[in-house]
Structures are given as structure tokens and as C-alpha cells.
Specification:
single chain, Gyrase A, domain 2, 3 domains, 4-stranded antiparallel sheet, 13 helices, 21% strand
Length: 522
């Protein structure tokens, strides 16, 4: 054996050992190849993102910005009212010039077109381009937030993707508590700090009793939990809350579980520099008033502001330790910019996954054995070459999936079977070309040389077209289709390596050691 051939054999053995080691389970990695939802079991969800929530919030914050800047400029503070998701109206005091308000709109409310209503009010309507960009960003932000939440829960290989204009497809393989994970995903966790008008009441009407007449259009009634002297839940009470939202969960820097002086679980939070400034202004200007901490349109607590608060605070309520842990996770991962509506939910049991694996493996074995028998029958000694290359192809494919942390799905098993068929197809093209060369009277070594060189172009052409198709499937397909595309892509590259490099080395080992071989089993 020549030195060059020896190195080729060493390379093949190194590839075989390296990829075989990658698929062997260990104590640190008991599942080298991750299984997808259809094999491991889990939850499949289709949800709609209600992008109108984010648009309404942007409109409310624009309204708040107008009033805050008017106050800074020592102008009369206008009374605002949201007309719809994208429009709000600012009522100015009589005989008030609008020049300064128009300047504020130009400098701070560039997302809105300003016009005048017949009764002299200023109308602010969100620009169409801004609304479109906000809805698109809302979808993107929602995907990122859900991804952060499920990753923090330790869900292996979650799949989250957009479908259509405002839908999300979420697949969670192997979840132990699908109901809890679904609740954490769906919880908007929109944290808001909003001023309370008057005192809470036992009914919505009672909460509105102490609200001044000119403020009744500026508030909305939200439910909260009434607590007794020991901090225990004692029913429901209602709060008249200002509609404007000066500080939100987007101003949070961190949130973590903690305990009060009485040992009750609560959530401690810290704010970003900009959030601390806004929170300081809010609390400093409203001492002795109630500040409602609102989470998903429910008042968690409404303490009285005793002093200015800047950088950090505590959210207290009738929480269990599990609720505190979940709320901290939701706030850390970021609030959802919009609520979610479940459109479809499917749960795949692990027993179905085991049946899929068993049937897939059985089909693969039957196909693999039939393939080996056919190759050995048609190509005799050269068929052994093809079988060895095929086995190495399978080891490389599974090893690369383990190294790249790819997820094996049921369509992925189909991709493996297809890949093995294409690998044999490459060998068939080479072997048939070698047969033609032998029939034309060529010597064995020359026939092998010509067979590989002349079949090369055809094999590359067929593989490239399939690779392009697989890339499109990977780019635009959903979870199962991506699983098929991944195994197909990896298998195609492995096929080229085994068909040309490995098979050629095996032939060289068999026939180069002979002086002038005259016969070939093919």
C-alpha cells in the first residue's frame, strides 16, 4: 500500500470513529440526537397575535406624551380621548392658541398626522406606515419573547415560527407540564403603573362614585383582589384607573422572586435609566395618591405613594411561590406586546412517538436490507464496496445531526431513507460506467479511473438540483418539512464523500496491490 493510499485509509477510519462517537449516548448526553415533537411527544399550538393591542398602547402613550410635554412647557394640559386604535383627540381649553401644541406634535409625536375637528379639537391619527411597521415589529417581538420564555423553562428544541400575517406556530417537544407552559406563553405580562382616581369599590359603579365628572371619560374600571389585614385574598374590588400608561414593563431592567418582611413571596424589580426617570416623575408628582400596579388588565396591588421612587420597587399580592417564579420569568423575558388567542392546540403523546420510531426504524431496516441484497445480487464484489460506503454514509449522517444538534422528526427518517437510496444511486452510476469501460476492453485500473471521472459530472448535477430543492424546503418549510430537509441535505453531502472518496479508496486497496489485475467482480 502506497503512502498516499495509507493516508486516505486513515482519514476514512478517523471520520468513522469521530462520527460514531458522536452518536453514542453518554451520562452527560443521554440523547445525542434530539427527537422532534412527532417522535418525543409534546404540544403543537397555533396562535393569533392581536396586534391591535400594541397599536392601542402606542396611541395611549402618544396621548400621554402630549400632556407631559404641555405640562413641561407650562401650557394648559389638554383633555384627551382615544377614538379608536389609531386615533386620539385632544380638547384644548377655550381661546387657547394651538401653535405650541402643533410644535409639540412635530417634535414629539412624529408618528401621528395632526388635523382639526369641526369643534376645534386636535386630532392625532397614526400614520399608515408607522402602524404597519408597529404591527410587523409586534410579531417579531412576540416571537422573541416566547422563545425567551420557553428556553428559560428548559424546553428542548422548541419551534416557533410565523404563519401568515399574524399567526404563530409553536411546537414544544417533551414538555412535562404542557398546561403550565401554555399559560406562561399566553400570559401577556403587560405590566403597567397607572394612577388611581378615588378609592376602590365593591362594584364597578362604586369605584366610579368618587371620580370627578370631568375625569369619567379618562378612566376605566379594572378588577383587583381585596386583601384582609393579614394579606390574604378576601374577594374582588374594583378600581377606577386612568387610561394613560406613563410607565410599562418595557421600562424594566430586571425582575426576580423575593420575600417581604413577613415572609410573603413577591417580585422585586429594577428599572432602566429612562424608566427610573419616568417612574421618579410619576411618583414624585403624585405623593399620597394610589398607584395601581396592573398586570394584564388586572390590578395586582394599589399602594399609596408615600415618597418618590426611582430605580427599584416591589410587586406585592396574594402570590404563591410558583406564581412569583412564573411572573418573574415573564417579566424578565419581556412582556408580550400584544395578547395571544389560541386557534389550534394538539397534544402528541409519547406513546405515539414510540410507535412512530418503531415503525420508522422497521421500515428503514426493511428498506436497508432489501437495498443491500439487491446491490450484492447485481454487482457482486463491487456491491460489498457499495454496502461499506453506505454504512459509513449512515454513520456520517447521524453523527453530523448529533454534532449540529439537529432534531430528528418522522419526515427526517424519511429523508434518511431517501438519502440512502440516492447514495446507492451514485454507486450505481459509477459501477455501470466501469462495466462499460470493461466491455470496451479497458484494463481494470483504467476502467475504475474512467468510471469515477466520467460519472462525476452526472452525480454532481443530480445532487446539486436536489440540494437546491432541499434548501428551499429548509428556508420556507415548517417544522416537519425542515426535519426532512436537514437530513436530506446532510445525507447528500455525505453521499458525495462516500461515493467518490470512500468507494474509490476501497477499489484502490483491492486492486492496486495487484500487479496487473485482469478481472473485476462487478
Amino acid at each position: 500500500m502506497t503512502r498516499s493510499l495509507l493516508w486516505k485509509v486513515i482519514i476514512i477510519l478517523a471520520v468513522l470513529v469521530g462520527f460514531a462517537a458522536a452518536i453514542i449516548p453518554t451520562a452527560d448526553n443521554p440523547e445525542p440526537i434530539r427527537r422532534g415533537l412527532d417522535l418525543k411527544g409534546g404540544t403543537h399550538l397555533v396562535m393569533r397575535v392581536n396586534v391591535g393591542d400594541a397599536v392601542r398602547l402606542e396611541t395611549d402613550q402618544g396621548s400621554e406624551m402630549l400632556k407631559a410635554q404641555a405640562k413641561k412647557a407650562n401650557l394648559p394640559i389638554p383633555t384627551t380621548r382615544r377614538v379608536n386604535d389609531t386615533t386620539f383627540i385632544a380638547m384644548l381649553p377655550p381661546d387657547t392658541p394651538t401653535t405650541e401644541y402643533e410644535r409639540i406634535a412635530k417634535d414629539y409625536l412624529g408618528s401621528f398626522d395632526v388635523s382639526r375637528t369641526p369643534d376645534g379639537a386636535m386630532q392625532f391619527k397614526m400614520k399608515t406606515a408607522v402602524q404597519t411597521a408597529l404591527e410587523r415589529d409586534t410579531i417579531t417581538h412576540t416571537v422573541e419573547t416566547i422563545d425567551n420564555r420557553v428556553n428559560a423553562l428548559g424546553v428542548t428544541e422548541p419551534y416557533i415560527a410565523t404563519e401568515g400575517a399574524n399567526r404563530l406556530v409553536i411546537e414544544l417537544p417533551g414538555v412535562d407540564d404542557p398546561a403550565r407552559v401554555k399559560d406562561i406563553i399566553k400570559t401577556t405580562a403587560q405590566l403597567q403603573f397607572r394612577l388611581v382616581e378615588g378609592e376602590p369599590g365593591s362594584t364597578p359603579e362604586a369605584a366610579m362614585t368618587n371620580v370627578p365628572a370631568n375625569m369619567k371619560t379618562e378612566v376605566e374600571v379594572l378588577p383587583g383582589t381585596r386583601e384582609d389585614a393579614l394579606g390574604r385574598s378576601a374577594g374582588v374590588e374594583y378600581y377606577a384607573i386612568r387610561k394613560t400608561v406613563p410607565v410599562t414593563g418595557t421600562d424594566l431592567k430586571n425582575a426576580k422572586a423575593s420575600k417581604s418582611q413577613m415572609g410573603q413571596p413577591n417580585v422585586a424589580f429594577s428599572l432602566t435609566p429612562d424608566g427610573a426617570r419616568k417612574f421618579g416623575d410619576l411618583t414624585g408628582q403624585n405623593i399620597k395618591r394610589r398607584l395601581a400596579i396592573v398586570l394584564d388588565n388586572k390590578v395586582i396591588s394599589a399602594p399609596v405613594i408615600n415618597s418618590q421612587i426611582n430605580e427599584s420597587g416591589v410587586i406585592e399580592g396574594s402570590f404563591t411561590p410558583q406564581q412569583v417564579a412564573d411572573l418573574s420569568l415573564q417579566l424578565r423575558s419581556g412582556s408580550l406586546p400584544a395578547s395571544l388567542t389560541t386557534l389550534e392546540e394538539r397534544t402528541v403523546g409519547p406513546s405515539l412517538g414510540r410507535d412512530s420510531i418503531r415503525q420508522g426504524v422497521l421500515a428503514s431496516l426493511i428498506g436497508f436490507i432489501a437495498l443491500i441484497l439487491a446491490v450484492l445480487l447485481f454487482y457482486k464484489g463491487a456491491g460489498v464496496n457499495a454496502v461499506l460506503a453506505l454504512l459509513l454514509n449512515l454513520v456520517i449522517l447521524l453523527g453530523m445531526m448529533a454534532l449540529f444538534h439537529a432534531t430528528l422528526t418522522l419526515p427526517g427518517i424519511a429523508g434518511i431513507i431517501l438519502t440512502l437510496g440516492m447514495a446507492i444511486d451514485s454507486n450505481v452510476l459509477v459501477f455501470e460506467r466501469i462495466r462499460e469501460e470493461l466491455r470496451d476492453g479497458k484494463m481494470v485500473r483504467a476502467a475504475i479511473e474512467n468510471g469515477f471521472s466520467r460519472a462525476f459530472g452526472t452525480i454532481i448535477d443530480t445532487h446539486m438540483t436536489t440540494i437546491i430543492s432541499a434548501l428551499f424546503l429548509f428556508q420556507f418549510g415548517t417544522g416537519p418539512i425542515k426535519g426532512f430537509a436537514v437530513t436530506l441535505l446532510i445525507g447528500l453531502f455525505a453521499s458525495v464523500f462516500t461515493a467518490f472518496f470512500v468507494s474509490r479508496v476501497i477499489f484502490d486497496v483491492m486492486y492496486k496491490s495487484q500487479n496487473r489485475p485482469t478481472e473485476m467482480s462487478i
